[in-house]
Amino acid sequence: MAAPSAGADNLRGMPPRRRTPVAEGHSALLACRAADWAADRRTTATAVRYTLEELATVAPGRTVEVRVPPHGAVQCIEGPVHTRGTPPNVIETDAATWLRLAVGDLTWEAATGAALVRASGQRAHLDGLLPLTSLRLDP
Predict the structure, then answer these.
(1) Which residues in the chain come in under a pLDDT of 70?
(2) In b/e form, how buried is each residue of 38-65, taking b as 16+ CB within 10 angstroms?
(3) pTM, to two decimals
(4) What is the CATH number of the domain that holds 41?
(5) Would residue 120 count as lying in a domain?
(6) Residues 32-60: pLDDT tens digits?
(7) Residue 107 domain-assigned?
(8) Whole-angstrom Cα distance, residue 81 to residue 98?
(9) What is the number of domains present in the chain?
(10) Domain limits at 111?
(11) What DSSP string runs through 2-49?
């Protein structure tokens, strides 16, 4: 019998495997913040992927897809699982907005009120999950 795939673990509510080393991601996040969210593309991509992975770790599941094109996307939040086609609950934003949300420099309410975030679907919100307190960015 074949071993279960990594995708099967996600279906059971397991957090995804980290692809960005924590130290590297944290360093990139600090660099982005120091550059007023305008760091080079590679640093920004690393910071975005790191924070998306952190979101998926804090809120595992497959109900909501958070997209930060072109850098990454992650499925998170427990609830009904969607497996084919476009997910019914999608959140999409740019890298600078996502990073500001992740560290608490921008609130969810302010971002949605200013149309910096596109959210579609009944469960497409990150209320109570942002900022990601596990990131521990001390001034």
Answers:
(1) 1-16, 82, 138-139
(2) ebeeebbbbbbbbbbbbbbebbbbbbbb
(3) 0.85
(4) 3.30.1050.40
(5) yes
(6) 999 999 999 999 999 999 999 999 999 99
(7) yes
(8) 24
(9) 1
(10) 20-135
(11) PPPPHHHHHHTTPPPPP-S-HHHHHHHHHHHHHTTT---HHHHHHHHH
